[in-house]
Amino acid sequence: MRKKIIAGNWKMNKTFQEADELVESIAQGLKELNLSNKEVVLCPPFLYAEMVSDYAEEYPFSVGVQNVSEYKRGAYTGEVSAEMIQSMDINYVIIGHSERRAYFHESDDMLAGKTDRALAYGLTPIFCCGEQLESRKDETHFEVVKAQVVDGLFHLDKDEIKHVVIAYEPVWAIGTGETASKEQAQEMHKFIRKLLAAKYNQEIADEITILYGGSVKPDNAIELFAEPDVDGGLIGGASLKADDFIAIVDAMKE
Ligand code: PGA
Q1: Which residues' Cβ are closer than 6 Å to ligand 1?
Q2: Known catalytic residue: 189?
Q3: Distance of alpha carbon 19 from alpha carbon 65, whole angstroms
Q4: Structural domains of the chain ordered from first start
């Protein structure tokens, strides 16, 4: 059975002290939950990753970061390599978030390179895809998501793709309070799984975790996560509030 994952993407929020309080509250809350067959991943800013990792040694969650360099090592001021991330015992990395695609001009080629780097160092990429509002309106959303998945991931072989988590995040639903309906989420997740089955095989497609992201909150999480191809969520705003995040983790049933 494929793994269910709830990942919190803190983006560029919180001071160190606030982040420490947040992770402590989340960690305490998680202790009370039954987490069998679901994994919780916290993705703080790089600077706080070590602090969050220290908690992860004692509490039931994993740690991810929000970006990785496509370069191996060397004179790349300001970059953080997959090798560095691995050496800090961090397991996940978000790749191709729509904010990075839009504000930092990350191309499909770069994202394919970042995915390769992450996999080469044993990290699990959480590879994001999702259409802008215009594509949803002019009904090119399937084409757009297909191109992102094909260009970013389909150079991988069968053994590599198995280690990737995909996150479908319609850009119009991120941080807007607007959520894709459970039907819209399910339809796109099923479409992505079909692409995976056609490129690799059904068994592999069935093993790959596909997360939904975009204004997931405690009150819509239950119905989104009940859809058969929605295997969890990538949570932005609501992951900054311990109670909301814990409620969302609890909403993911086995
Ligand atoms: P949101 O962000 O939950 O605040 O919409 C999701 C994301 O960007 O991963």
Answers
A1: 9, 169, 174-175, 213-216, 234-238
A2: no
A3: 14
A4: 4-251 (3.20.20.70)
